[in-house]
Amino acid sequence: MEPLRLASKSFSSRLKLSTTIFWANIVIENLDVKKLYALLSSSVFDEIRKSDEVEREKRYTVSVDIQSLIKENEYPYNDKLLIQEVADCYFKNSNGNYTLIDFKTDRVSEENGEETLLFRHSSQLILYARALSEILPTKIEKILIYSFSLSRF
User: Fold this and answer.
1) For a Cys-Cys bond, which of 35, 68, 95, 140 suits 129, CB 3.0-4.6 Å?
2) pLDDT over 90 for what percent of the chain?
3) Sheet order of strands, 98-104 included
4) Parallel, antiparallel, or unpaired: how do β-strands 98-104 and 140-147 relate?
């Protein structure tokens, strides 16, 4: 029975590896080097490089008072909201506060793309920043959206 389990593990490992290679090839084939260069040469990425604390794809769960998110007296109960999030990136700034970055792949036009992204995602990011501030030692100073479509923050 033991050899079957080992064979099964081996097959499973090979399957995971081939799946990873398959997805890596798709990513590489669709990689826009100019867009990647725009991100890597940005001043924000330079700040990330210099930071002594950078988190990527960080999972967190916090409980937030709903009343703290809504205008006074509009919600009379003491309920909590459970927020589960994966932060794309946050890092400590040189002044000790944090910057939260959300990477977006939405296709938006050059003319009104920034406004479109803000309209679509600002409420979500404010909520995420509020939740993340519950677990960080200092405040979230900046919230940034990086648009791969626009190649800029």
Assistant:
1) 140
2) 31
3) 54-65, 80-92, 98-104, 140-147
4) parallel
